[in-house]
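Team,

Forwarding the record for the chain on the shared tracking sheet. I've put the sequence and predicted structure together so nobody has to dig through attachments.
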Amino acid sequence: MFFALPRIYLNEITKQINKKDIRTARKWCKGNFLKVYKDSSGEFAYQYEFDLVFNMPLIKDLKLKHGDNWEDFYHAYKKNELHKMIDSTKSVEKTGYVPKGKLSLKLFGGSLK
């Protein structure tokens, strides 16, 4: 049994990353460590790998803002249901601030890092 993974061709990648030239798409793939394959139908990458690389900045941002709960927010984002996540949890932003005085310690409670 042969199982084929979905492909995305370089001309489609150029549209996704909002560029016009295939050479730019190749450079973007190389810069983001996305493997580009070649066969008789053209140059392509696997769709799942492209989705991961394309969404990595969003994933990193969600991990920073929401900690362990980032996957729920990511799935809500992909389904266009972020409005349902507003009341679920408060976002947690990690800072490197370390209060030095007693008053600052009372106000800010120390670093979340």
